[in-house]
Structures are given as C-alpha cells and as structure tokens.
Amino acid sequence: MGERTFGLAGWVERLGEAELPALASVVKNLQETASSASNVSVQRVADVLLHDAALTAKVLRVANSVYYNPSQEVIKTISRAIVLMGFENVRLIGLSVSLVDGLLTRVPREQLQELLARSFHAAVQARNIAGYVLAKHQEEVFIAALLHHMGEMAFWGCAGDEADDLAEAMQQPGADVEQVAREFLGVSFRQLTQGLLKNWNLGETASLAHNPKLQNDPAVRAVTLGVKISEAALDGWGCDAMQKLVGEMAEFTSLSPDDALLQVLASAEEAVKVAATFGAGKLCRLIPNTDPDQVRLQQEQRRARLLQPNLLLLQQSLQELGQLVTQKGDVQLILDSLLKGLHQGAGLERVVVAVLADGQSCFRCKRAEGEGAERWQQEFMLPVDQPQQQHIFSYVLRSRETLWMGVPATHALNDLVTLPLRQWIGGGMFFIAPLLAGKREIGVVYADSRLSGRTLKHEQFVAFQRFTQLASRCLEALTKR
Questions:
Q1: Which of 340, 347, 399, 438 is deepest in the core (most CB within 10 A)?
Q2: How many structural domains is the chain composed of?
Q3: Are residues 48 and 181 both part of a single domain?
C-alpha cells in the first residue's frame, strides 16, 4: 500500500479524478445542462447520456418503469424520454443511475449500502416535501438530498484498505464517529462532500444544503428535513426525533401532523420503489419499513437499546418481594415485582416466566416482558423433556441450578438448548433459574438482552439470582398458608 491520502485536496483529487472519473464527468456534464430546458440543453442531455451506451440503456430502462412511466408507452430514445417525462426528470434519472452504477459496481461494503439507502430515502422525502412549498425545482431538491453524503459515500465506495482501517477504528467502544473520521482523513465527511460538490460543479441546491446560514431557504429546508427524516427513521417511526420532525414538516407544509406522518410513511414506501427502479434493489431492505409488524419490531429494538438498569427500581422491587415473603400476597403480585425488578430494574430486555402446565406435561408462558411478550403468552408451549431429548428448562428445574448460559463455565450444557427452544430464544447468552415453592417444582425464569445484542453483565446475574430466590421463597410462603 502506498502513502496514505490525507486532507481535503488529496481526497477530492483521489476520489474525483482517480476513483470515480466516469461518474464525475457524467454528473458534471449533466449538471451543466441544468440552467435551461431549451432545445440546446435537451440535445446536450441526450448527447451526454448517449456517450455511454450502458448508461443510455439503464436510463431508458428506468424511464420505462412503472414508477416513471405509468402510461407504459414504450420509450426507445433519450429525446423521446425528455419529451414525455420532462427534461428535469431525465437529468435526475441519469444522475441517479450514474451514482448507483459508479458506487455499487465495486464490492459494496455495508456502510456504503446503508448510506446509499438512506440517501434514496432522504431524496424521496425531500422531493415530496418540496412539492408542497415549491412550484418547481423539486428535482433539484431530490438530487441535493441524494448527494448530501456524497463525500462519505465516495470514501466507503473507493478508499479500499483505508476504508477497512477506518471502519475498524469506528467500531472501538466509545468512538466518536465524526471525530475518528476527521483525525483519520484530515478532513470531515461534510467538508469532503462540499469539496466534491464544488469540484464537480454540482449546482447550488446541493451545496446550499450544507450552509447553515441558508437553512430558511425553502429548497434547502426541504433537503434538510428529508435528510433528517431518513436518519430518524432508523430508530423507528415512533421515536422522539421523528415526532419532532413530523411537527416541523407539518408547520412547513401547512399539513396537519397526522397528514404529515402519513406523507412521511408514503414517501418511505415510495423510496423502496425508487431504489429498486434505479437498479439498487439490494438497498430496499435497508430503507425503514412501514409495515405495522415491522414498525413494532423496530420500536421494540429501539426501546431495548435505550433500556438501562434502574437501581432505585431494583431496590424497590427487592423490598416488595421481601415483604411478600411475610405478608399475604398473591401470585400476580409476586410476578409483578419479579418482572418489574428484572426488566426495568436490572435492565434485562426480555424476561419470561414459564410454568409447568397440563398435568405437568409441558411448560407454558405465565408472564413475559419485552420483545414479543404477547406471542410468548399466547403461543409458547414446550413439552417436558423425554430421556432421549433433554432440554435446558427441565434440566434447570431438576438440578435446581441458576445458570448463565453462553459463558465458558456452562459450555458443556449447550446441547440442552434444543432446536425447538432455539426457535423461541435465538442464539447467544441468557440467564435461567428454577422457580420453586419449597420442594414443589413450579417452572423456570428466563432472561436475555437478545434484541440489542448487548452482553449480559455480572451484576445483572447477581440480581437475577437474588430475585428468583426471593420469588421462590414468596411462593413457598403462599403454599404454607
């Protein structure tokens, strides 16, 4: 590997001239035709695209797609496409196809795919917002949002070994992504984007979106909202940032907040179609879903990521259980304190109490907290194991051991996590303990932090042991009354 590239000028030269010259020239030439849709410009757009046969074919394929050509009149030439679809649309398609082609034909790394998916999503959101406030220039807004992260996309698409090194540095615990990038490249991704846009002469709107002084310009505001919505959507449609942005958008477009949210969701669905139309089908899975079940899962994942241990709640729940050993308390109260203490107190994302049922022939879910709790309560059923097919639930109840599975000490028991069980709990670490009432076997308590993938901690295991022992003592006290 040669000398490392460092600083704005070095990276602009390397990415624009060495790595992406074909993309740069098409983008530049198409952009220069933007000033007017006169006959001269129309001819120039046709000439720029016809210069590259593969690009022409792809632009015509997009022009003939249902999304851009609902009437399905077959378009065979670029000039016919311009007549039917409008100059701006064809220019936009040429730019977008060039971008996808220029970046995704290499070995596309995950960071690039995620950014490109986010860029298509931002572009569609921004254009649709602009439709409410601008009589024209919506296509320019689309391009500006699509190219908003151009510097970072070009880096992940073209920087080879240096991209590998930066990706590794960014994965270190507590790394500030922006700062690491700046130190590593000698320039921020934002500055790199501005450098490339300027070098490629990419029109005003694209550059303006990076100028904080111009945030009140309607076109710039549409771009900024589109970009922010595409980022917030990654945390689920119900997250705080999204609600704030939907409010801003409602005010900007004079829509009601409910209608603004419907427009945002419709734009997300449209973005999936647009990405597929531009030959970037592999990006569709990375654009946040609007299907209610998927949305619910995304929101649960967000909640799981935000769940932190709450020591005050943990102490309160322990005290409640301690009192229930001596006072008259029913099973529901005991389970309430147990689940609250483990889920909100100890910060365990998923907690399940499975009890022996149907004449002690199987385990069924009595209570659950966290992801998929309803499904566990309605559908979970695990037969008590047969001698030839033992599983961890029965083993723990018989041996009366509390286990931390997924650590070296319990490695020998991994075979007891059988396939039917794995379909419910997935792979990875979990805690499991017997639930007893004196000598009587009641069931098991299971807990994990599977949704966010966080590692379980020693102090969580200590709390888990303490809570499950106390709950068993409460149940024993109940049976003695």
A1: 347
A2: 2
A3: yes
Nearest Cα to Cα of residue 114 among 203, 233, 248: 233
Structural domain harbouring 255: 8-303
pLDDT digits (tens, 9 = 90+) for 13-53: 888 777 777 777 777 777 676 555 566 667 777 787 788 78
**How many Å is the Cα radius of gyration of the chain?**
29
Question: 297 and 345, same structural domain?
Answer: no
User: pTM above the 0.85 mark?
Assistant: no
**What pLDDT is stored for residue 42 in this prediction?**
73
Q: What residues have CB less than 8 Å from 284, skipping those under 6 apart?
A: 117, 272, 275, 276
CATH of the domain at 362: 3.30.450.40
How far apart are the two ends of the chain, measured CA to CA in Å?
Answer: 77
Say whether both 293 and 398 belong to one domain: no
Structure tokens at 359: 């004449």
Together in a domain, 218 and 355: no
Angstrom distance (rounded) from CA 334 to CA 128: 53
Q: How far apart are CA 13 and CA 2, in angstroms?
A: 16
Residue with tokens 């569709």: 284
